[in-house]
Write a structure and sequence with these properties.
Two copies of one chain form a homodimer. The first copy, chain A, is α/β, with parallel strands linked by helices and 335 residues long. Helix content of chain A is 25%, strand content 27%. The longest helix of chain A is centred in the last third of the chain and has 14 residues. The model of chain A has no long low-confidence stretch (mean pLDDT 94). At the A-B interface, helix 7 and strand 13 of A face helix 7 and strand 13 of B.
Chain lengths: 335, 335
């Protein structure tokens, strides 16, 4: 009897704001694993802002999702049938096969994760690409130095909350913004940032001036839009901007920063990056992150939704800066 | 009998577009030089786009001009009375005392220039801060490598025409834009750039696609505005932007680039710079530029106006991308 797997597919490309109609569900029969392959049942899957870009047609930095095919993305699963000795049944593995309950794949395309260190979901977040993104952006792109002041927009999101903590671990003073009061409370009370604010509450530049009267050295940009413009105004000479995400403009275009030319007089550097260029840094990052997580210096907040059926709504909520979305958004599947 | 000197002063700060009314003229009596000082009669003075910023109140990267005082800036003059043995009468010297016929100053504040190598005016342009700006922007900020494709906006201006030539000397393929047909002809016929276009003629991006079907590696930005937006679209992955000037927005605000977030997926780096941070590189630059100028590999085009009275109109013309303004704008004074 074949193994059945529910999967979430891209049904159509959104025009502007995506809706639930852009997704469809299908149940497929999985083949038996061939030699060298494993059958994996996912336990958690990742929901990320960058997925919005892949729903569009045309070239992004990752190829677009294909209509009628399952949404690709990070997932952690458990090997249930193994025909490869390196990944015996019971092993937890990371894949990029995305939004499906189960799959059969070559063992060589998967990476085992050590669940004695942290729960499986942490490998999608703080110990995964999410954490690495924050680490690379702060240390390699923006070249954070001890004692500098860092502003992180989208600070309560997955990458943002990692960036706030990593900046503090490296001696930074941290200002962070979010889109709701519960998120601001999370930044202030759990992440212990130095100044937290709701970017919808007044002018972001007023907050930056209040939180950093002498200006900021680094802006870790998850949003683009008005917060980027405010950051350009608040940056000190020789400031750096790590351009990581532009969620403000993912669904609808936003104006460009009218004050970009301040970069000349202030000798600012703005640099875009994507984490897939930096996967070679993962061991160096984990060497720092795993002990920090164990000792409690690094925390990881996750927002769970249950069942694959809930994945599309979770993505829409994320793109709306929904109140539910603090930290890493994870879809949890029954084991 | 005291020496008289005519000078051009800032009379008032412009609101938007500057006019001739923002300038005034005055004749002052110069003191006799004290020991260690020299009396210098200027032979040429520099007219530069960055002066527009200094006409405003408030902090720019250089202090604002003071109302009622002479416009500061680069000038080359000849020592006529010397009380310092290092700068005997007849020596040509460079100063930043600006728009005045003559001045008395400490010899230590001046720099002798070698007029056997090039005419005095060249030290305001291709062998001066203008040339250094282009060289630093291309080689140190944008890190031009042999074989790369470079787009220079404002290519017929002083810095732009230096950038076009230096890029070609370093093995670059050069696209350049200008604001009039005579300037485009200059780019094409005299500077021999690979593709020259009038940015007012159609969509700049169409020109960039035509001149560089595989995209550009570097954008040397003298303008900001729509050309920056077009360049962001045309840049290849890992492209670099040297933010040097924003003449498009000096008099009136222009919208920011709506597509700045392309910098993430394309891993672009945008970096602002000002040449005064890099004056230590002048010897290295001149070691390359002087032989190139002598051998004819580097040319310098100048636009002269005669007499200090003509200086304000020359600056206004420059800011209007006036047709007269090809290459370096110089005010020539009678010897």
């Amino acid at each position: 009897m074949p193994t059945k797997s529910l999967e979430v597919r891209l049904a159509s490309r959104p025009q502007g704001e995506p809706t639930l109609d852009n997704f469809s569900f299908a149940t497929v029969d999985l083949p038996d694993p061939e030699p060298g392959e494993v059958l994996v049942r996912n336990v958690c899957i990742s929901v990320d802002p960058y997925m919005r870009g892949r729903m569009n047609e045309g070239k992004s930095y990752v190829p677009p999702f294909q209509i009628g095919q399952a949404m690709e993305g990070g997932a952690i699963g458990k090997v249930v049938v193994s025909r490869n000795e390196k990944l015996p049944a019971g092993t937890f593995v990371q894949s990029i096969y995305g939004w499906r309950e189960a799959y059969v794949a070559p063992a060589a395309s998967l990476k085992a994760v050590d669940t004695s260190v942290a729960p499986p979901s942490a490998y999608l977040g703080i110990l995964g690409v999410t954490g690495l993104t924050a680490w690379v952006g702060l240390l390699q792109i923006a070249r954070l130095k001890h004692g500098e002041t860092v502003f992180v927009s989208g600070g309560a999101g997955a990458v943002g909350s990692a960036a706030c903590q990593i900046a503090k671990m490296h001696g930074g003073k941290v200002l962070a913004s979010a889109s709701s009061e519960p998120k601001v409370a999370f930044l202030r009370d759990e992440l212990k940032v130095d100044y937290a604010f709701n970017y919808r509450d007044g002018d972001p530049l007023d907050h930056l001036k209040k939180g950093a009267p002498d200006g900021i050295h680094i802006y870790f940009d998850n949003t683009g839009g008005p917060q980027l413009e405010a950051a350009l105004a608040a940056l000190r000479s020789y400031g750096r901007v790590a351009l990581c995400g532009g969620i403000a403009g993912y669904n609808t275009p936003v104006p460009g920063p009218r004050n970009l030319m301040l970069a000349i007089g202030k000798r600012l550097r703005l640099e875009g990056f994507i984490v897939s260029d930096h996967v070679g840094e993962m061991p160096a990052f984990l060497a720092e992150a795993i002990p920090a997580l164990k000792s409690g210096k690094l925390t990881h907040r996750e927002s769970f939704v249950d069942g694959l059926e809930a994945a599309p709504a979770a993505l829409l909520d994320l793109l709306h800066s929904g109140a539910a979305n603090i930290g890493k958004m994870i879809v949890r599947l029954p084991e």
